[in-house]
Amino acid sequence: MAGRLIDDEPELAFQHALAASRRGGRMAVVREAVGLTAYAAEHFGEALREFRTYRRISGSNDYLPMMADCERGLGHPERALDLVRSEDAKDLDTAGQVDLAIVASGARMDMGQFEAAVSALEIPQLDRNRAFSFSPRLFRAYADALELAGRNEEAETWRKQALRADSALGMGDFAEPEIFDLAPEEERKERRSERREDRSGAYFAADEESAPKDNSVVEPAEDADALPSDEQEGLLTEDGDVDEDVEVVVSDFNMDDDEDEDTAREDADETEQSRIDD
């Protein structure tokens, strides 16, 4: 529940996570949920405490950037910078390093050190020609720092670059909308049942089509009427070919019979003539 509410109703999500923590407070995943929802609801003191507890239980430093940002939220930019410079920061992956640089830049802004805020973001990942999942937020943070430093034209350039990165990655305004099925459970079951029936019908139809055809048998007319019009036309064409073949065979057979009868009469006449001559 907390995960579904965190973006739209962070305060309510935080309350749900707190309720869960009363039942499983010593589980790392529970402390993580409480920390994330508290951070989203801007309860920075609670979030910092929960992230510390999570780190102690799990041994993970993944939330070090959020911990540093909580220090900023509590009005302690110097403590935020201490976390940025800590040994634990070396354990972070590339995205974590980027987030930590953004927090460091924000801390410098809080202290009025705008050029230092710009410098904090000039890291190898700040590449305008390449876009990663973290690139849009890094580009925007850099644009904000440039603007505060009075470098407005450069700031505008990086804001445009952030939009291009969003477009390339399908993020932000270019993200695909999430679709949720809000139909009642009974309707969902009914639709699933219909889909199963459709698949079953298609399966049997495929079996019938793949079965070998015996062209010596002409399908009854009523079976043809039961087919769709386009299939009827195909069946009629096939039947026409069969009928034509049958007619040829029947015609040849009748001609053979006539020849046999004529031969028999000639033989009988010759025999009768021989007897008369004798």
TrEMBL record:
Region called Disordered, residue ranges: 175-278
Superkingdom as given in the UniProt entry: Bacteria
Biased composition (Acidic residues): 220-247, 254-271
Family annotation (InterPro entries): TPR-like_helical_dom_sf
Biased composition (Basic and acidic residues): 185-200
Protein name (Swiss-Prot/TrEMBL): TPR-repeat-containing protein
Organism per entry: Arthrobacter zhangbolii
